[in-house]
Amino acid sequence: MNSRYSETTGLLNQTDLSGQFEVGGIKNSFALSAEFSEEKAKNGSYVSNAATGAAIATGTTATGGRCGTDSTNRYNCTSLTDPNPSDPWVSYVSDASNVVAGIERSLPKTWTLSKTTTKAVSLFDTITITDSLLINLGGRFDRYETRVSPGLAVNATTDRSWYERNDNLWTYQAGLIFKPASNGSIYISTSSAATPPGSYLANGSEGNALNTSGSTTQTPQELTDALKIEKTKSYEVGTKWNLFSDSLALTLAAFQTETKNARATDANGFVSFIGERRIKGIELSFNGNITPEWNVFGGYTYMDSKIVDGGFTATSGVYAPSVNTGKRFPNTPEHSFTAFTNYKVTSAFTVGGGAIYMGKVYGGYSDSRSVQNGVVVISKELARYAPSYWRFDGNASYSFNENFQLQVNVQNMFNKRYFDKAYASHYVSQAAGRTAIATLNVKF
Asked: Residue 3 and residue 46: Cα distance in Å, rounded?
């Protein structure tokens, strides 16, 4: 939103060492990495329409309320279906005033301050048993430290409060690759990952934020949930083949991921603790050339997502399983598909296009509950979702010479209105309409 102000600085040092060695005639190819990083962020806002609070207190708000005629005329609101991109960002003393007020940054005391420090080391090794059989092994250790201080009210007289968490995170990867032919391979692998809270320093809609706002009103369980580390284990088996003299690559894989302490972001940008998630599916992809001039790439993915354990919900002091348990995980489509192609009309001129399909996604669930004879009775369940959609894109490029190339991309060519994300409340995220991007590439 245009009222957001943020400032981020970072320092990163990464040292990599790789090489090969043999033990008992078995070849090892290793990669060793050490990393240190520190990031600091300040998140505040721009203050506009400064006297609105006073206007509300004196009963002089604009006609029709916050999105009435006067507010719309002063650009506080706009049409959802037909917005005007030329509307200015302007502020008035109040909704009912024509006097322009300044737009400035909020006071530093109101900013949320964040700092994260990571110290990590990793080692991965590819062991060549034979030319047809390889083993991948590796692990990583992270010492992750985060500190967050929520902003204070403008009139606050108290000192800042700081919340911090330190974690030692161990993750791994192991895999086996078998090559039955020079142009193909079959593999099986497993790995783990860990996402600590606050890892994006509250920039944007973070799926695993460290929740500090309103912490005094949170229950102990909510505070505990907000600090849990999101941990994922993945299992995959697949095959890869290069066909037609390595001009076309095909991959097919079956996978399953299991996530503890899974989260999702709600319509207000806050984190909603979901619980335990399981996703299993199949993925098919292709990439390469049918002819020297004709290139294709794309894929299809099927995902069966399930909230295995959504925790418990209290109704009049009686606990029962959450409405989320057994449901599909938010914003995870069951079916998705992409297919793109490019064709060289001449050695300098290329045209192309493609299609994207995204299946229906659920944003969240709710129900009506009551307690009868000490038992929770569910009388109504609701599921909110965004429908499936197709999107078609196009592109063209022309190379004037080896140094200059002009490229044009048009996304959502038919200007279709669709929604790419749903939330547990009645909100959805409307995707961009027709978008054209022209790029001039210069090499020298």
From this structure: 5
